Amino acid sequence: MKGLILSGGKGTRLRPLTYTGAKQLVPVANKPVLFYAIEDLVEAGITDIGIVVGDTRDQIQAAVGDGSRFGARVTYIVQEAPLGIAHGVKIARDFLGEERFVLFLGDNFIRDGIVSLVESFRGNAADCQILLIKVPNPQQYGVAQLAPDGSVVRLVEKPKEFVSDLALVGIYMFDSHIFEAIARIRPSWRGELEITEAIQTLIDLGYKVSPQILSGWWIDTGKMEDMLEANRLVLEIIEPDNRGSVDPASHVNGKVVIEKDAQIVNSTVRGPAIIGERTRIVNSYVGPFTSIYHDCLLQDSEVEHSIVLEHCKIVDVHHRIEDSLIGRNVEITRSPVKPKAYKMMLGDHSKVGII
Question: Mapping DSSP to helix (H, G, I), strand (E, B) and coil, where does residue 34 land?
Answer without folding.
Answer: helix
